[in-house]
Write a structure and sequence with these properties.
This protein is α/β, with parallel strands linked by helices. The protein is 36% helix and 21% strand. The protein folds into 2 domains: 7-81, 60s Ribosomal Protein L30, Chain: A, CATH 3.30.1330.30; 88-251, SPOUT methyltransferase, trefoil knot domain (Alpha/beta knot, 3-Layer(aba) Sandwich), CATH 3.40.1280. It has helices spanning 13-22, 40-51, 61-67, 88-97, 113-126, 143-148, 164-173, 211-214, 234-251, and strands at 7-11, 27-33, 56-59, 76-81, 104-108, 130-134, 157-161, 177-181, 187-188, 198-203, 219-222.
Length: 252
C-alpha cells in the first residue's frame, strides 16, 4: 500500500530495521502482529522503536497483509515519510564534497521494482553512493523497492532528474567518462581499465539504453557470454559490471 504523497508503508524485517537505524525521525509508527514469543528480529525492532519513542501498534495479520499489498511483511510494517529524492544540483555539490566516492550509477528507464531494488542492494555493497534516475518513465523508491534492496536504499543518495542527457553532458564537462553496458557492444567489459571519475549507464529491461543516451556514452561494453541464452536481466548484468569495477579499484 502506497500511503499518500507524504507517507509510505515499508514492510519486512530488514527494511524496517534499517529505516529505524538510519532515519528514525522519518518513522511515524510501527505496526506488528502480537505474539507471545516474537522472533529475535521482531523483538529488536520493537525495542529500537520504543527506544526512539516511536509509537508501536499491535494489529491483526490481515491489516499487515493489506498494507503490504500481498508482499512478505514478516510480521512488521512501518509508516514512514515518503522518500526524499535529491536534485541534480545536489549531486554536483555532493560529488565535490565527498572525494573518493566519484562513481555515479545512472539508470535509464528501469520499470521493474525488483530489478531496481536488487541493483541498489548491489550498488551499496560495492561502495556506490550516487544513483541517478529519470523523473518520468521509471520506477521510483517504492515499498517493494525498499524491500528488495534489503534496506540498502537508506544508505544511498538517489537523484531524480528531468533530463538524463543534460545530466550526462554536465558530468562530462566535469571530467567524467561515461560507459554504457550494452549487450550488442563489441568491446568486452574485462578488456578495459576504467577511470575513477566514471558514470555507469544501465538501460531498461528488454530495450536497453535509449539511442539518445547511448550516443553520449564515451564507450560501450558488453558481458562475454558462453551459454545459449545470450542475455542477463539488468540487475544481474549490473552486478557483474559493478563488481568488475570494484575488483579493478582494489588492485590500484
Amino acid at each position: 500500500m502506497e500511503g499518500n504523497e507524504k507517507t509510505r508503508f515499508y514492510f519486512g524485517v530488514n527494511p524496517v530495521a534499517e529505516k529505524l537505524r538510519s532515519s528514525p525521525k522519518e518513522v511515524f509508527e510501527v505496526m506488528m502482529i502480537r505474539s507471545g514469543q516474537p522472533r529475535a528480529a521482531l523483538r529488536a525492532i520493537h525495542d529500537e522503536a520504543r527506544r526512539q519513542g516511536i509509537p508501536i501498534r499491535y494489529v491483526e495479520p490481515g491489516v499487515l497483509d493489506r498494507l503490504a499489498d500481498g508482499g512478505k511483511h514478516q510480521g512488521v510494517v512501518a509508516k514512514v515519510a515518503s522518500y526524499a529524492y535529491r536534485s541534480f544540483s545536489d549531486l554536483l555539490q555532493d560529488l565535490s564534497s565527498t572525494p573518493g566516492h566519484d562513481m555515479v550509477l545512472l539508470l535509464d528507464g528501469l520499470t521493474d521494482p525488483r530489478n531496481f531494488g536488487a541493483l541498489l542492494r548491489t550498488a551499496e555493497a560495492v561502495g556506490v553512493r550516487h544513483v541517478v534516475i529519470p523523473k518520468d518513465r521509471s520506477v521510483g523508491v517504492t515499498p517493494a523497492v525498499v524491500k528488495t534492496s534489503a534496506g540498502a536504499v537508506h544508505h544511498l543518495r538517489i537523484y531524480r532528474v528531468s533530463n538524463l542527457r543534460q545530466a550526462i553532458l554536465s558530468l562530462k564537462q566535469g571530467g567524467y567518462w561515461v560507459v554504457g553496458l550494452d549487450a550488442e557492444a563489441q568491446e568486452d567489459l574485462y578488456e578495459r581499465i576504467y577511470p575513477e571519475k566514471l558514470l555507469v549507464v544501465l538501460g531498461a529491461e528488454g530495450s536497453g539504453i535509449r539511442p539518445l543516451i547511448r550516443q553520449e556514452c564515451d564507450f560501450l561494453v558488453s558481458i562475454p557470454m558462453r551459454g545459449k541464452i545470450a542475455s542477463l536481466n539488468v540487475a544481474v548484468a549490473g552486478g557483474v559490471f559493478l563488481y568488475e569495477l570494484l575488483r579493478q579499484e582494489r588492485q590500484l
